[in-house]
Amino acid sequence: MKLQALFLGVLAVVCSSSCVQAATLRVLVLDGQSGKPVPGRTVEIYSDKPASEPVVKGLTDQKGIFSTTSQLPKQIAVHVKGRYLCTGKNHGTSVQRLDDILSTGVVDSNSCGRKVSPPPEPGELILFVRHESLAEFLDMN
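^ that's the sequence the OP posted. Answer follows.
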């Protein structure tokens, strides 16, 4: 009985950060200066831990939206290939709690100029991006 309780306790701790759940996620990618949608960009979603391959990836449509219904970890790292995030901190990746996105929606910060953003819907992550500079491009390749 004690061994079973110990196992369940360890499982709960491990699950709190890495267990997956089925979720429908919508990522809206907007230009940080103009606020316009950014179509044709690859959005990659990783677990919160470094991984060689994304959990899921796909292209934004003409409205700058990438949608997926997938098994996702409780914390995700979202990267938009070829663009930098306007967060003013980790320019390449936005790390978010999936529960926050699913319950209320999340708007990532924008230090690129445009301060107005559409209100997020539950299940939606709004990211503001900018072009990467030549130095950033060369540093990544």
